[in-house]
Specification:
single chain; about 350 residues; alpha/beta; QueA-like; 2 domains; nine-stranded mixed sheet; 17 strands
Amino acid sequence: MRKSKVQNFDYDLPEELIAQEPLPDRDRSRVLVLYRSTGQVEHSHFYRLPEYLQEGDLLVFNDTKVLPARFWGCRKQTGGKVEFLLLREIEDKKWEVLCSPGRKARPGDRFVFEQKNLEATILDQTEQGTRLVQFETGEDFKAMLNQLGQMPLPPYIKKKLEEPDRYQTIYASQNGSAAAPTAGLHFTAQVFHSLEQIGVEKAFLTLHVGLGTFRPVKTEFIEDHNMHREYFELPEHTAEKINQAKERGSRVIAVGTTVCRVLESAGVDRNGLTSCAGETDLFIYPGYHFQVVDAMITNFHLPKSTLLMMICAFAGKENVFSAYRQAIERRYRFFSFGDCMLIL
């Protein structure tokens, strides 16, 4: 079987189209509507989302909450300062962490923090260059992060975020992400109310987003890329709602690539979707056959990223790249704080 080159998923984006801050009103973002069967495109705004949905449609959301996961520690041995960025909880107080500069965070090194009752030991270094870190404290570590940490914005956002809550969805409830599920940032209470009025249903699952999301694929061929792992939970009541939607012929609409990844990881048997939890390293790229997701809301993604490849698998590479060209021509705002697509 012929392999696909990563270079085929590159595109040129003017730097000024990378959104550096959120709009004053979440639902005023623009939305490019792409009909994947025809490649037809329409241009609208997010507050008009109900015009494109119908009674019985089921929107599935990721309710993960971004941890203020960036903070600084000092090496006990030398006093050297190191940035810690929490990526993934392995077990109680043991995390996979991105340390910068890495040369100052070697296995065996111990660190102290502003909170005098918090210390950390570097246990190991992974093949990806991250560190396994054991934190030591008598207090609730995640609660302590709210005092200690800063919101970990993606590296392409250079401007300081004045309101940290704008990098959270309004329904975020499950602490654990290193990044926001950005497709959900556009939703407001008013949009939810409008959708409810026309009979659109909603359900929630959890996937804690890791920074692997933002890393470009560095192999020559996409099939050679090792996908990062992320923890997810698909509750029973959400699985039931999805099965009911399928039975009545309604659309299951993933709000974001993270939701898509969970639903496709869970898989379907003759009894439908079943609840599950665990880690997924599912890599979706063109050629993948979708089992659950019928439509998707998603932001615009980085060139050569796994997320762009997933969207191309869902809507067709030619359709997606044509839509991206139109978005660039019309000066859409890109990436986390940018505009979005509705793929039907």
